Amino acid sequence: MIQSRSTSIDDPSAACPVSLEVLGQLSRADPRRVPDIVADIPEATRARLAVYLYGRSHTHELGIRIAATCEDATLQRTAGIVGSSLYAQSRKPYVLPAYGTSHAAPRRKVSLGGSARP
Phi, psi (5° rounding) for residue 8? Predict the structure, then answer.
């Protein structure tokens, strides 16, 4: 009996499912060219690659773009509920994350010159 092991974004031991050459080509590519680059990669491998990239902060967007080239069933078989979530995200327009954006009140300026006294 063959057991399939689902991929998880939490599994740091999971190896990248494509060569470093392909990975480098994808990371340097214009985002609109990503579907063309991965077109010859089997869908199951693309799904594993999407999950692999999605789980890393610096390749998160690339993972979503590659997931857009996969079917929901393939992503779900690959990563369960994470795969389904990734499929749903890949069908929405990408929104840049707002990391570090502060909505706090502006701080008062501090002057080192002292106060002007007559």
Answer: -130, 145
What is the CB neighbour count within 10 angstroms for residue 54?
A: 26
Name the residue ranges covered by the structural domains of the chain. Answer: 20-90
Amino acid in the structure at residue 99: Y
Identity of residue 8: S
What do you get for the CA distance between the two ends of the chain, in Å? 91
Residue 49: exposed, middle, or buried by beta-carbon count in 10 A (0-12, 13-18, 19+)? Answer: buried
| Tens-place pLDDT, residues 34-59 | 999 999 999 999 999 999 999 888 89
C-alpha dist (Å) from residue 62 to 38, 57, 106, 116: 11, 10, 35, 55
pTM: 0.70
Spatial CA neighbour of 71 closest among 55, 57, 50: 50
